[in-house]
Amino acid sequence: MRLDQQPWSLQKFGKKATKQVLWIAVALWTGFTFVGFFSPIRELGASFAHGTMGPWELFWVFFYGFATYGNAGYMREQVCKYMCPYARFQSAMFDKDTLIVTYDRERGEPRGARSRKADPKALNLGSCVDCTLCVQVCPTGIDIRNGLQYECIGCGACADVCDTVMDKVGYPRGLVRYSTQNAVANHWTRGDIIRHVLRPRVLIYSAILGAIVVAVLVGLALRVPFKVDVVRDRATLARVVSGGKIENVYRLQVMNATERELVFEIRPQGLPGLVSATDTEVVVKPTESLWVPVRLHLPFDAATPGSHPIVFEISAKDGTGHLTEKSVFLVPR
Q1: What's the fold here for domain 226-331?
Q2: How much is the pTM?
Q3: What are the domain boundaries of the chain?
Q4: Which residue ranges in the chain fall short of pLDDT 50?
Q5: What is the DSSP string of 37-95?
């Protein structure tokens, strides 16, 4: 703010320009990494360096970069106040026994400036010296002394700076602290607060959160690092080929979600004598997908006319996963 009030000079211009360049670089890097979740980031980096990025990749890199630059560089706390849904859904879970950053009004009021040696009781003043540092350090610009407000993000910066002021003037810490509304009103001890914090609402929420965490960890541990889709060839449903065998043609899309090349083995199952007339091994490059045509042969008299369920068993040869996909095999009349 002091720099903004100064007249323009070479030093001021240099500081402003350096700040803008650094912020633009951070913003563009943010956009680049976001797009890298959807496009292979190594190829994206090479195309970005050579100026050969696709129109949509270029658009989203600059879109996310502009959003980062505007939100973090100019809107700042306005994002927390008006765009972030945190305060809206958090308020539904609050009650008077919820731990929050709170101001002890009974102890702090009436507030007022005084010398360090002055007796606040003689001056009829509370512990708050009205230094306003709690307001100055607040990232959303609120005054915690006015009570809990939806803009509060619970960072505790006001409590930290207030404790330093209390140390300087020789008063006990905790004028602004993490506590509950009931604890402040009823002068509860730490043990009383803990007993009221561990109530059914908190235990239920904690159990739900714990179940979600366990489900996510189990899902990650059991995740198969590839996917397969099976599509029947609509041009040729079923036909009799040389050797008196019935042929059905399929197209398998094998998607490799890992950062290394994988070799897959495809095995058809479900009917006696069912074999693949194409190569059963497929090599898929890292983070890519590959359409694989598969021709299945069945002896003419091995099944009755009609539709028969079969499965494709696809497994990675390095042992990282195994999948089965259902389909049908048609036998003409």
Answers
A1: Immunoglobulin-like (2.60.40)
A2: 0.55
A3: 2-75, 88-188, 226-331
A4: none
A5: TTS-HHHHHHHHHHT---HHHHHHHHHHHHHHHHIIIIITHHIIIII--HHHHHGGG--
